[in-house]
Specification:
Elements (H helix, E strand, L loop, with lengths): L5 H4 L12 H12 L6 E5 L6 H13 L1 H5 L1 H6 L8 H8 L5 E5 L6 H11 L9 E6 L6 H12 L5 E7 L7 H4 L3 E4 L5 H15 L2 E2 L1 H11 L3 H15 L7 E2 L1 H7 L5 H12 L3 H13 L4 H21 L9 H10 L5 H20 L3 H15 L6 H9 L10 H7 L13 H4 L9 H4 L2 H10 L8 H7 L1 H13 L3 H5 L8 H11 L1 H10 L3 H7 L2 E6 L4 E6 L2 H9 L1 H12 L4 E6 L1 H7 L3 H12 L1 H10 L6
The structure holds zinc ion.
The site of zinc ion (ZN) has 9 residues, from α4 and α6.
């Protein structure tokens, strides 16, 4: 016999087998018992949660001979019997009383007209003809209108079931003539239970953790979970008698990033250990994980801490018990405010990664910035302990970072501690509460100084925290950006400044947009920050001739805006990058549309109102 995929082999054939949709199956069974069957139904919900399956069971039930003939059976069981001729026809896929119609590929008026013609013919055997229209939101407006009449006065033998993942796209005229059922996302434990049953039936052993991992990956969709299980079985079970699914194999196959890695991030924050943080970044890189994916999971990791802070319970965290306990324990290392600030930073980084190159560097920088945001996050006990310890010797690379983590508000004033001398040019940090956000601290520092008189030391001062991270990075793994911009730099400081400018670049553009300078922003989208000299001359490379001319013309205004935003005495030199102009011309259509969609109010409005998106 040919192989049948799990999702089809274990497709429920009774209401009772449909997982986690009891609120719907119960209502339908009740209406069958009372003989109150409607003519139009909308089944909405995520993909793979049982909409079409429920529709098929419903079609089978209304035609089941036993349900029709045996009132006792109808009242007590209310399930298709699976034995009568009609049920057998349904199971063999031979029944003429069910028509499935895929609106995604048959969405024209003509298709609907054909369906309408068809509807006039009554059922063969049985009572009803059931029309299941899948992805009904894909019908054109004209097709919906053509259908309206049929739905207003349906023949008594017709039942329409519209299945959709996007309920809001169904016109109100159609929706108001139907009973609506919203299918829920299937809870993790129910999917896991179902997978366990399938494994039992197939004679395959499986770790609980492995099945939970599959269930989690499926994100509430039973069909997805079953498809993954198919794949896992093919991967994990070999011909040499191995008959079990193990966690490590599943996590391997699914490129799953283990929870441990996210705890490593929070541990590195708590101990202000930049080296450990870079190790995590390196792991992501080595294993070929997607940075965006990692960031998304890391945001979820922080969300779990927020849940614990707010609910004081880990019930809502869908993880094995020991992981939940670890969340409860580690939640003490971070305050809710810090968690929120970190989540903000990560979301901003996600946006930046979409639009800028140098992914790896931005990713590492974001992770290192988490340490800065989490300064002083060690628990009270740890703080006391590390405060009583002698400060680490200057040679240890982690020393400056560690000294920061021990900083407490009351210690701020008298702190000429030895750690300050660990990195010679770095002065004692400014007022600690402000230190978490480097900008205001640096603003005071530079407001008083006229441009041009800035020496290297003050650059370092301005970005002392940032600089220490960047230096570290430069020393471990010089990135492409560091190399290209190193021409005018001494001691890596302007590199640090340049990277700081880059990190905040997205926000700077938002700032300009808010000030009504959208045109300038769209020209800046065609430009890159190339270098920054020690005296604050920023070099912008512009890959579009026209944008270059405009920016060159407005260089003074741009310099003022930059100086104002970054709180640094910056000057701007724009140059035209002809080589890049040629190589970026190919993707310019998308870029142009993207800029247009960001800068033009009409386009923004159209996108918002009609749910458009950029396709390229
Ligand atoms: Zn039957």
């Amino acid at each position: 016999m040919s192989y049948q995929v799990i999702a089809r082999k274990y497709r429920p054939s009774r209401f009772a087998d449909i997982t986690a949709q009891e609120h719907i199956t119960g209502t339908i069974q009740n209406s069958l018992r009372m003989g109150r069957v409607g003519h139009g139904y909308i089944f909405s919900g995520l993909r793979g949660v049982g909409k079409t399956t429920a529709a098929r069971v419903f079609a089978k039930a209304v035609n089941c001979q036993r349900m029709i003939d045996d009132p006792q059976y109808l009242k007590e069981v209310t399930e298709p019997c699976g034995e009568c001729e009609s049920c057998r026809d349904f199971e063999a896929g031979a029944s003429l009383n069910i028509s499935e119609f895929d609106a995604a590929s048959n969405n024209s008026v003509d298709d609907i007209r054909m369906l309408r013609e068809n509807v006039r013919y009554g059922p063969q055997k049985g009572r009803y003809r059931v029309y299941i229209i899948d992805e009904v939101h894909m019908l054109s407006t004209a097709a919906f209108n053509a259908f309206l009449k049929t739905l207003e006065e349906p023949p008594p033998h017709a039942i329409f079931i519209f299945a959709t993942t996007e309920l809001h796209k169904i016109p109100a005229t159609i929706a108001s003539r139907c009973q609506r059922f919203n299918f829920k996302r299937i809870p993790l434990d129910r999917i896991q239970g179902q997978l366990q049953q399938i494994c039992d039936a197939e004679g395959i052993g499986a770790d609980d953790d492995a099945l939970q991992l599959i269930a989690r990956k499926a994100q509430g969709s039973m069909r997805d979970a079953q498809s993954i299980l198919d794949q896992v079985i093919a991967f994990a079970i070999d011909s040499e008698g191995e008959r079990s699914i193990r966690y490590d194999k599943v996590s391997d196959l699914l490129s799953y990033i283990d929870d441990d890695h996210f705890f490593m991030v929070t541990d590195a924050i708590a101990s202000a250990d930049a080296a450990a943080m870079l190790e995590v970044a390196g792991m992501v890189n080595r294993n070929g994980y997607d940075e965006q994916d990692f960031l998304e999971k890391l945001i979820e990791h922080f969300r779990n801490f927020l849940i614990i802070h707010n609910l004081r319970s880990s019930k809502l965290i869908e993880r094995p018990d020991q992981v939940r306990e670890r969340y409860e324990h580690d939640a003490r290392k971070l305050t809710p405010e810090e968690v929120m600030a970190m989540t903000d930073l990560l979301m901003q980084t996600q946006r930046e990664l979409k639009f800028y190159a140098e992914h790896q560097f931005r990713f590492e920088l974001a992770l290192l910035k988490l340490i800065a945001l989490g300064e002083g996050t060690a628990t009270a006990d740890e703080k006391k302990k590390s405060a009583s310890e002698p400060v680490a010797p200057p040679a240890a690379p982690a020393a400056p970072a560690k000294s920061k983590s021990t900083r407490k508000p009351q210690q701020s004033a008298p702190e000429p501690q030895p750690a300050a001398s660990a990195v010679p040019p770095v002065p004692p940090p400014p007022a600690p509460p402000a230190a978490a956000t480097p900008k205001p601290a640096s603003s005071e520092r530079f407001a008083a100084k006229p441009a041009g008189t800035i020496d290297l030391g003050s650059w370092k001062q301005a970005f002392s925290k940032f600089g220490s991270n960047a230096d570290q990075r430069v020393s471990t793994k010089p990135s492409a950006s560091a190399v290209t911009s190193s021409s005018g730099s001494t001691g890596g400081v302007p590199v640090a400044v340049l990277e700081q400018l880059r990190m905040e670049w997205g926000r700077f553009l938002e700032h300009l947009t808010a000030k009504g300078l959208q045109v300038m922003v769209s020209h800046l989208h065609a430009s890159d920050l190339m270098a920054c000299s020690p005296d604050g001359l920023v070099e912008l490379g512009c890959c579009r001739k026209f944008s270059y001319e405009e920016l060159h013309h407005d260089a003074d205004l741009l310099a003022r805006e930059m100086a104002d935003f970054y709180k640094l005495p910056l000057r701007v030199n724009v140059r035209y990058d002809a080589a890049r102009d040629a190589c970026t011309r190919e993707k310019s259509v998308f870029t142009m549309f993207q800029e247009l969609s960001e800068s033009n109010e009409v386009v923004r409005y159209l996108i918002k109102e009609f749910g458009g998106e950029l396709v390229y």
